Amino acid sequence: MRITLGNKGRDRVRAKLGKIMKCFSSAEQSHGNEMVPSSEYHATKDNSASVRLSGESERKPDTGNIEEAETSLRESGCLNYEEARALLGRYEYQKGNVEAALHVFEGIDIVAVTPKMKIALTIKGETHRRRSQNYASPPMSIHAVSLLFEAIFLKAKSLQALGRYKEAAPSCSVILDIVESSLPGGLPENFGADCKLQETLNKAVELLPELWKLADSPREAVLSYRRALLQHWNLDAQTTAKIQKEFAVFLLYSGVEAIPPNLRSQMDSAFVPKNNIEEAILLLIILLRKVSLQKIEWDPSILDHLSYALSISGGLEALANQVEELLPGVMDRKEKYHSLALCYHGEGHDLEALNLWKNLLKTHEDPTPALLFLSKICGGSSNYVEEGIQFSRRAVENLQGRCDQLMGIAWCLLGLSLSVHSKSSVTDRERFERQSEALNSLEIAWRVSKMKDPVIVYHLSLENAEQRKLDAALNHGKTLLKLEGGSNLRGWILLARISSAQKCFVDALTIINAALDQTGIWDQGGLLRTKAKLQIAQGLVKEAIETYSKLLAVLQVQRKSLGSEKKLKENRNHVNNLELETWHDLASIYIKLSRWHDAELCLLKSEGICTFNASRWHATGI
Fold first, then answer.
1. pLDDT tens-digit profile of 463-491?
2. Is 352 exposed, middle or buried, given 0-12, 13-18 or 19+ CB atoms closer than 10 A?
């Protein structure tokens, strides 16, 4: 039965505590091997230049020390040496004397008191679960355990403030180790609610991964994050959400590939992430689900990180589903439509994106982003090209006197739309006028962007080449190669094709060979096909067949790797189309050489890729 103290009883407890603290202070001064000398100790306390907590102002000690001591005295009848040190250490820590606090905390023999703390926690847990009091008295009260836990935690914080992160992390981990070994099934509900034990445990669980990150130990940080989320610590919803978000951010941007989690307790049908990206996506989706269930408040950065993770992993459709599932009012309606349109556009569903951006034009305060995307989508389709021209002109008008970079993009999109539109012209005069206007728009875009935008330079060079202005196209192609530093394949291929159009086949082949030397084997498909065509143009048929054979070998290996790694659908389609065109090119060569059997084999191979193909039927008819 718990003893209730009156005012006189409380005064006696306070007097007894005062005597104990005085005795402890005297002991501190007399035991030089355990504490600093008296003069040094007081110098540490009085020196205004002593180490202070980073980012914290000096705080006045609260009455928590006396209250904790009173509770311990009521329960055990005495205040032992370790508890007294814990109280004094907390007192020094609250004043900002980190070094003095650390010295006091280091005098606590954690190894000696750990068995007592474990027994006390085990008895408390069993008592709490079974609602029975028929247990032997624990060797230590739960308030004393709470006091020592706080001392261990503040010791870790002191080491952190002093920059000793590799010592702070193991010290903080002691709290979690004791709780896990004492209560393997996790903490019961409302465990330690009448003291600071649960609060200290929450802080330790949250602090440990941060300490390992500061100690430059990413593997231990990952394990600590998983330990915090997979064990039952009775964390509140906000703390759990904070840890989940920080862990997802660490997985996405730390640059360290973590070991996949070993979830032995998971059901067979449960999803187990295989890498950093999948684990981060899982955590962020859980956070979004909590927002939908109104367990936590809306945090826009959650969707930002999830957008990045799903974008780099080819999951834009999944991102659109997550955005659609958000409750009304959580996300601004205009921002939601814009995000959905971006997802649909990225997945190739341009019609859905087109409708969403058109709706945004009616209400959006700044229509520039929607106009630019509408210009891009409509300008690339012969069915909507006239609308694309209109959207591009509106974007140019809207950007007058504003961002030069966006203005350059708007002019470039206008030029591309006019170029596409010129191909459907009925008369030569109409086609010439549209081509001239397209070229003029691209030149304006080139000047507005100060001739530094590789995309604009590429399209300007391509448009000059299509209009047979080869010298201008070659100059812009060389400029493009310098701007990109040879990092983009399309620049090399464009320059080679322009040289080929000028009948400079040797120069074109030299350009392709230079590109092959600087390109990885997986990106050589387009270059090898261009090289084979140049060899055919020079009459080097045997060399061309060898180049095609090399290309097919690369594509076969690439196809297998794509299938095993489940790459994006667009990349698989690119490989299939390139292989199909390669078999058709080889069939054409063998037909010219009257090697009918080899030509038939090539056409059979192409039929296995795509049954209905006009080029294959044409070659078969020949």
1. 999 999 999 999 999 999 999 988 888 99
2. middle
